Amino acid sequence: MSWLGAVPAWCWWLIALVLVTGGQQCRVVIADGAAADARAETAKSDKALADYRLEVAERDRRAAAQARTEEQRRQAMADKEGESARQQLELAQGRAADAESSAAGLRGEIARLRAGHRATCDTIATQQRQAGTSAVMVLGGLLEDADRMAGDLATALERSRIAGLACEAVVDHMKAP
Question: Where are the alpha helices (DSSP H) in the chain?
Fold first, then answer.
C-alpha cells in the first residue's frame, strides 16, 4: 500500500470538505467584492443621476422664469401700444366731432342760402326761377351729402390707420429680442 492508504478515510473527507469550503469562501469573497464594486458604481450613478436631475430642474426653472419675463415684457408693450392707440382714437374722435360741428354750420349756411335764394327768386320770371332753384337745390343737396360722406370716411380711415399702426408696433416689439 502506498502512503495514500495510510491516511484514514475521514481525513480525506476532511481535506475534501476544507477544499470545498475554501473554494466556496473564495467565491463568496469574490462575490462580495463584486457586490461592493456594484454598490459603489450604483452610488456613483445615483449621484450622477441626482446631479443631472438637479441641473435639469435648474435649467427648467431658469427657462420658465425667462419665458415669464418675456411674456410680461410683451404684455406690457402691448398694453402700452393699446393705450397709445386708445389715446389717438380719442383724439381722432374729438377732431371728428369738431369737423361734424363745422359741417353742421356749413349745412346751416347752405340752408340759409337756399331760403334766401327762394326769396329773391320770387321776383324773377317763373322759368328762370325753376331752373335756378333746381340747380341751387341740387348743388346744395350734393354738397351736404358729400360733406357727410367725407366726414364718415375720414373717421373710419383714421380709426383704421390708428389700429393698423398699433398692430404694427406690437408686432415689431414682439420681433425685437
Answer: 3-6, 9-121, 126-175
**Is the pLDDT reported for residue 135 higher than 90?**
no
State the Cα torsion 24-30-31-36 to the nearest 10°: 150
> Residue 118's CB: how many other CB atoms inside 10 A?
14
User: Contact at 8 Å (CB) between 140 and 110?
Assistant: yes
**Per-residue confidence (pLDDT) for residue 120, from 0 to 100:** 62
What does the alpha-carbon distance between residue 98 and residue 92 come to, in Å, rounded to a whole number? 10
Q: Are 176 and 77 in contact (CB under 8 A)?
A: no
Q: What pTM does this model have?
A: 0.50
Report residue 134 as a C-alpha cell. 333746381
